[in-house]
Specification:
By secondary structure, the chain is mainly α. It contains 8 helices and 2 strands.
């Protein structure tokens, strides 16, 4: 199999490592008043920028699936809960094609993707609460403003933390096509 194949063995291995990193970071997250604080978006961003939207989507989807299995097992809404992180990977991968890393566009795409995840998680939280009968307006929408603020801050921090990682990857030859 050639190195330029669509999904080379190296690329699949890198995606696997990033999925494992997503899972590890999700275990290190914590919740404060209905707002989850986590850095699990970091490997999704790395996959989306290095390999594109499909890899970003897969890392978010499979990493979130592992997180769901570890915390809740398989439920009626598992498929819904794993979509927002996957959509982040897709949005970042599509939004950053041929974009300069560190540019205003780079940060704007990451912030937009963070907002998508917050809105998606709130929608899934609502669906989950209706399905399982624990709906409370204050529980689901009362902290929405704080979810948005925390997602924007986290998105900005992750985007900033990723820049030196991308620089190191470019120097190592792994990210030779990165636009820094």
């Amino acid at each position: 199999m050639s190195e330029n194949a669509r999904f080379s063995a190296r690329r699949i291995a890198a995606d696997g490592i990033l999925i494992a990193l997503f899972f590890l970071l999700s275990l290190l997250s914590f919740e404060v008043g209905g707002v989850k604080l986590t850095l699990d978006a970091f490997p999704v961003l790395i996959a989306a920028v290095l390999f594109g939207p499909i890899d970003g989507f897969l890392v978010g989807l499979l990493g979130a699936f592992l997180e769901q299995m570890a915390h809740f097992g398989f439920t009626a809404t598992t498929a819904l809960w794993i979509l927002p992180p996957a959509i982040r990977g897709l949005a970042v991968g599509l939004g950053l094609k041929k974009a300069q890393l560190g540019s205003i566009r780079y940060f704007a795409v990451n912030l937009f993707a963070a907002l998508l995840v917050s809105c998606g998680n709130t929608a899934v939280f609502y669906a989950d609460s209706k399905l399982f009968g624990y709906y409370q307006y204050s529980l689901i929408f009362g902290v929405f403003f704080w979810r948005i603020i925390s997602s924007l801050l986290t998105g900005a921090v992750i985007a900033a933390i990723a820049l030196p990682v991308f620089s190191a990857l470019k120097k190592s030859g792994i990210g030779k096509d990165l636009r820094l």
